[in-house]
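Why predict the complex rather than its parts? Because the way molecules touch one another can change local conformation, and only a joint prediction can capture that. The input here totals 870 residues.
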Amino acid sequence: MKEINVGLIGFGTVGSGVVKLLQENKDLISDKLGAKLILKKIADIDTTTDRGVYIEEGVLISDANELLADPEISIIIELIGGYEPAKSFVLKAIANGKHIVTANKALLALHGDEIFTAALNGGVEILFEAAVGGGIPVLAAIKGNMAANRFTTVLGILNGTCNYILTKMADERADFDDVLKAAQELGYAEADPTFDIEGTDTAHKLALLLALAFGSKINFSRIYTEGITSIAAIDMDFARQLGYKIKLLAIGKCDGEKIEARVHPTMLPLNYPLADVKGAFNAIRLTGDFVGPVMFYGSGAGMKPTASAVVGDVMDIARNIVAGVGNRVAPLGFIKDSAKSLPIMGIGEIRSRYYMRFGVTDQPGVLARIAGALGEHNISIKSMIQPTKTGNAVPIVIITHEAAEKDVIAALEKIDAFDMVLEKSNRIRIEDNLE
Amino acid sequence: MKEINVGLIGFGTVGSGVVKLLQENKDLISDKLGAKLILKKIADIDTTTDRGVYIEEGVLISDANELLADPEISIIIELIGGYEPAKSFVLKAIANGKHIVTANKALLALHGDEIFTAALNGGVEILFEAAVGGGIPVLAAIKGNMAANRFTTVLGILNGTCNYILTKMADERADFDDVLKAAQELGYAEADPTFDIEGTDTAHKLALLLALAFGSKINFSRIYTEGITSIAAIDMDFARQLGYKIKLLAIGKCDGEKIEARVHPTMLPLNYPLADVKGAFNAIRLTGDFVGPVMFYGSGAGMKPTASAVVGDVMDIARNIVAGVGNRVAPLGFIKDSAKSLPIMGIGEIRSRYYMRFGVTDQPGVLARIAGALGEHNISIKSMIQPTKTGNAVPIVIITHEAAEKDVIAALEKIDAFDMVLEKSNRIRIEDNLE
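Output of the joint prediction:
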């Protein structure tokens, strides 16, 4: 039986999962491929820690360059993450004619254009299913069986740390800081959680989804990104009362001319399947012009689910090697040069419905002034709640009809300057008008 | 640009959707393929009805054999459904060296072995994504990115008609017969709904899912199948009260040695995403040893979603034609002859938790006798409800701990023979122990 040699760079959690999977399901894999996958070398700067998986003497080396130069290796798995040296390794592997499988969303969101072009020109493949949604095979579905669709909407819960925190906050009426601390102690959040809680990781993943779904070049820098740090327990209470869940949602919309791309806390109606995605799970909902709405749900991270996506990609490339073809599907699903460069709208240009919370003094006429300021900016109110006083500031919550973000920005700036407003307002966008 | 000629047999609802999709998204498709898909001929015995789509003069013909004999056509789409003449057409197309795309679950569930063997021997491909879950790309995911997994469980809500009826019954506390009649008037159920409501259509789809997920040969005849006709409004009431939804569920489980395969009404806890699948939507939940649980959700039928899956398959084959390869992935995902023949367990051998409803006379000692009979057959009771009397028979509802089906059959037979039992008991299996 034909043997296909694989090299792995990065022997951390996911790397160990990949080794485990290649060992445990070896026979299953060769029954499907008609070829054997041989993990010939693993490169990691740490060659001593016991990862709990057996590897043969001589397989683990410290110098990735040795592996990149090995002429017997056809597929390189890059799992070190971050920008450098990952980028250099990937480009060198491509230059050496090796196919790439990576889970590195940060690298591809920022340098994908350069890397994909190098892969296309070099006649090698690059697959990255594990970069978005962990084990959920959503990228393969967009490039594969759903390829005939013109997609109009992509929505995603793509960061397990944020979803875990928001789920806990909602279930336990707890404050953000306390839940984050607990999550860190349990290992559900990094010691430095910035990339997760500020929405950056979600935006990296959205950048890749947009490119695949809308056939446009990757444009990470234009994605509006807002994290979950400003969500208060009181917002969770109001959300519950109003029939919503708050999720950190990646939103992509495309009308064929321009793209709306944003990551921010979002209120979702309770009866939406996305509202029901709990804890560390991820979900992606796409709407295509023919397939309609389709949702994918599963483990968005973790050693074993991520390894499933990585090895699935390796098998896809291996099938091409067995069949003797290359570049059967381009990295973003479109043939070379057919990807468009659609502009991404600024956040001010979008329209949404809004939840707004104001902390005001308890005196007559306050609501009239707020309503007046909103009206002056073409924002109509759909409903309002003014609960009993808590603390110094009385909260007023307003749900608006669809309004322009630029009008909302202007109105809130004006309202926040009123004397009777004691706290800076909070506003959360609402997504409840899905096709 | 290279042109790939496609022939369509069956110009009904889905066939019209395929024509529409090939026309509307023509440019998108060629941007992805680097080739043009040309619908060269459509065969249908009805060549006069207006399907609301434009086709050029001479494309629509009445004789499928003409299309099957056309040497310029590389891919045949079979959308006539049923066994014959579909089977003869498909086998003839394979004999003529043409690739096949079909949505015909009934044909493949019964004659898949013969057809797949013919395709493998003939060096042509056969894809059938649209046969299971309409537009949901679940088969491609099992054969594709999730291929490295050993699957242990497959659960599916696979029949839109049944799910629509059960959703209506639950929401409107209506009886089966009334909802079926309304569904027929609205076109959501066929004039002869037998295949749907008796579970046969769901079992056809399960047969295909099992073969793909567990790598075993198709074995439709061994799938235990029970439809939804015995579900009463009162069962819906109790389900609600107990925190369950009743769904027609396709269940496949595999421990590597044997397969459990059954289709029947099933109680699912309200907090399961599957319990929340409404109306004509479909969902499939798979558990793999590495990916963990993954769920796919979308439109399980209809002109446009089904067309999405059909054209997605056509594009997959077209990519192989462009690349100059064939049989890159075998019909069931395993290379020739590597599929096993795992035995499917008889229904008596399975274990489950059960909901049991008895209609008894209102007299002391009834519950004791029922409980005694259950105990004699090793069935322990988890909870019991005895509501106030309705009609002549007093309902008693029992939820059991896990028990063997063969014991349940024996116990219910015994209990149903008691004098004080006025109605035949109803039992619904419960699935609430998902990994």
